[in-house]
Amino acid sequence: MKLLVTRPEADSAALVKALAALGHDAVVAPLLAIRFLDEAALPARNWQALLVTSANGARALGRRRDADALRNLPVFAVGQASAEALVHEGFTRVKAAGGDVDALAALVVASLRPDEGPLLHVAGSVVAGDLGSALAAHGFKVERAVLYEAEKAVRLPGAACDALEKRSLDGVLLYSPRTARTFVSLVTNAGLKDHLGDVTAYCLSQAVADALKGLPLRGVKIAHEPEQSALLALISA
Question: N or C: which end of the chain has fewer CB within 10 A?
Fold first, then answer.
C-alpha cells in the first residue's frame, strides 16, 4: 500500500523504515513541526520522578545541559516510543505505560507515593488529557514544564497534495487528535476532500478517529491500543 505519513519530521524516518519492512510505500508529509523551547526554565526541585508524555518531550530534555542532574531519576513514559527516546537520550531508569495518559497515571499511582516528593511533567504547549489532575486526585503534586511546541502546518504539504490529486493513496496514518483535525482542515482548504474515497485512515486511538468526522474516507480503523506496534499490526491485518 501507499500510505501518507503525517508525523513530525523527527518521528517519520523510523516509521518509514518500519513501513518499508512490511512492504508499504510511504509519502512523508508532516502536519506538525516541532520547535524546542530551549529558553524555557526547567524548574529546580527535589523531584521524586519525571513524567514524559511524548518522544519530543524526551528529545527536549536530552538537548538541555540543565537536565543532566535529572538523568538518574526514575522516569515514567506514556508509551514505548517515548521510553525508547528517553533511553536514547541517556536516561537509565525508565518505565513505559500503555500508551495514554490514563495508563501513565495508573502506573505512577502503582509505583510511587505522594509523600516522597513532587513530580515533574515534561510536555509540549498542547497536551492530551489532564495528567496533573488525575494524579492530584491521588495526592501527588505535579508541575508541568513546557519544553516544546508543535506548530501546525498552514497548508497541506505538496507531497500529500500530489498523492491525493493522483488518487494514488491507500491510507493515512494519524497519531493524535490534533494531527487529525489539522488533516481535516488542510484537506478541506486544498479542495481535496472528494479525493479521499479510496483512502483508509489508520488511527492510534478512538479520539483520533473522532476528529475525522465529516471526511468522506473509504474507512476508519483504530489500533487496539495506543502504540505504534498496534497501529502497524492494524495496517498489516
Answer: C
